[in-house]
């Protein structure tokens, strides 16, 4: 069986579901794990070239049918001539849009050989009643079957170009026009939200404020806050919730391509 010295995990995961998927995949392989957390303001900013004997696992959430802009920009810094990569986009049961083809294009452009790729479904990080508590047991079973097939393919060393759904040019990247509010009566000024924000949208000493122009609605600060002081509210959020629960609450399944 093909073995690797290093398993490099690259992910952007504001509400932690994408990280969970990446960990599930990585833990099925032997080798020392290295992490590249692109949510971290400093993470992924400098060029990185992987050595032979590395398997790369990449996980990205889908934002408005695309990869989050900050994440895709950083991902372009990772290069690996013929380095095998397993790459997934992770979405909240609404739509994949062009994110899967975008992820595959970036990795191929940077030299990686895609072993297996796909789109997994997880709890929607904004409207949490959609795909609530996913990935569940059934999702993880399907994911494990996929990883098993990736292992077989790595052993066979036969890698053909994988076709994935999506359009070119990609759909236009649209920022979701939501910004979390901070309930200062709950806030204990721990500043965890400030350091969690990939866009530096929360001023250093003033977590009560958020710069709406910088905020990408990624949800990291909401999931980080130990006091549940940060959340989305307002008409647009309520309308989004109603629309998603009415139109997109039927279970979609993960899909994989090898
Ligand atoms: C700004 C934003 C945009 C999103 N856009 C989509 C989308 O277009 N389609 C979809 O199905 N889910 C969408 N989602 C849901 C996330 O893709 C999903 O919850 C994913 O599991 C989040 O990953 P994370 O837990 O690693 O943050 C969006 C979430 C956010 C925060
Ligand atoms: S302020 Fe906006 S961009 Fe920053 S962590 Fe919170 S939701 Fe994400
Ligand atoms: S993480 Fe929550 S409690 Fe801590 S500063 Fe931010 S809003 Fe306040």
UniProtKB/TrEMBL annotation:
Which InterPro entries does this entry report, sorted A to Z?
A: 4Fe4S_Fe-S-bd, 4Fe4S_Fe_S_CS, Flavodoxin/NO_synth, Flavoprotein-like_sf
> What Pfam families does UniProt report for this protein, alphabetically?
Fer4 (PF00037)
Provide any one GO MF term from the record: FMN binding
Top-rank taxon of the source lineage equals: Archaea
Q: Where is the Flavodoxin-like domain?
A: 7-151
Indicate the segments forming the 4Fe-4S ferredoxin-type domain, all copies: 178-208, 211-235
Q: What is this protein called?
A: Putative ferredoxin
The source organism is Methanobrevibacter smithii (strain ATCC 35061 / DSM 861 / OCM 144 / PS)
């Amino acid at each position: 069986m093909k073995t690797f010295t290093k398993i490099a995990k690259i992910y952007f995961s504001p509400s932690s579901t994408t990280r969970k998927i990446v960990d599930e995949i990585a833990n099925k392989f032997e080798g020392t794990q290295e992490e590249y957390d692109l949510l971290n303001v400093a993470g992924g900013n400098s060029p990185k070239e992987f050595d032979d004997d590395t398997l790369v696992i990449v996980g990205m959430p889908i934002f408005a049918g695309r990869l989050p802009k900050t994440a895709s920009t950083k991902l372009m810094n990772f290069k690996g001539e013929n380095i095998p990569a397993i790459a997934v986009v992770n979405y909240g049961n609404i739509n994949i849009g062009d994110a899967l083809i975008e992820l595959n294009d970036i990795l191929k452009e940077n030299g990686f050989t895609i072993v297996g790729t796909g789109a997994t479904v997880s709890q929607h990080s904004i409207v949490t009643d959609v795909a609530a508590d996913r990935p569940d047991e059934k999702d993880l079973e399907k994911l494990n079957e996929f990883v098993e097939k990736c292992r077989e393919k790595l052993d066979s060393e036969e890698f053909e170009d994988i076709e994935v759904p999506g359009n070119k040019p990609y759909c236009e990247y649209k920022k979701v026009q939501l910004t979390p509010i901070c309930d200062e009566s709950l806030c204990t000024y721990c500043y965890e939200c400030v350091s969690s924000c990939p866009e530096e949208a929360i001023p250093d000493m003033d977590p009560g404020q958020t710069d709406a122009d910088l905020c990408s609605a990624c949800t990291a600060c909401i999931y980080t806050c130990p006091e549940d002081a940060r959340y989305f509210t307002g008409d647009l959020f309520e309308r989004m919730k109603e629309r998603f629960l009415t139109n997109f609450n039927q279970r979609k399944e993960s899909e994989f391509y090898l």
